[in-house]
Amino acid sequence: MTNTPDPLNPNHTPVEPELGALLGVFALHGFIDALMGEIDSRTDVSYLERKIMIWLDRPKRLGTLAREMNVLPSTMTTAADQLEAHGLVVRERDPDDRRAWLLTPTDTGADLRATMVVMARTLLCETLGLSDEELRSFAQTSLKIHRNIQKHMTC
């Protein structure tokens, strides 16, 4: 086990890499939650609804979104109703299975998602100081973590 020194507190005992990774994740999650809380107070779109828009990079079935986000289908249905009421999504029949519905972003929804991409870049690159290469590496690692959690949750 290799300990990583803390450059912000050189007199502190070094933290194990495993715990350093967790501390970074906790700090990032708390920081993002605080920012999302500020945004939530200025808009009618809730935290969950904003997360759905992040996941909605293309039309997706409600069940698929629920699985990807680890929420109950009934939670997804309620949130989809709210997003539809805000004019951010529409429900369309899935052309591959007419029994299923796709959630599709409207132009307004796509604009909101694009704004969130810019906000994420600002947060990760400017505020947290990640380079483009570090951002790509962080994204690959984060997506790997998500895929592995999804596999674990479906077992």
Automatic annotation (TrEMBL):
Checking Pfam families in the record gives: MarR (PF01047)
What SMART domains does the database record attribute to this sequence?
HTH_MARR
The coiled-coil regions, if any, are none
Q: Which Gene3D superfamilies match?
A: Winged helix-like DNA-binding domain superfamily/Winged helix DNA-binding domain (1.10.10.10)
For the HTH marR-type domain, which residue ranges apply?
A: 16-147
The protein's superkingdom reads Bacteria
Q: What is the protein's name according to its record? A: HTH marR-type domain-containing protein
Q: Which organism is the protein's source? A: Aliiroseovarius zhejiangensis
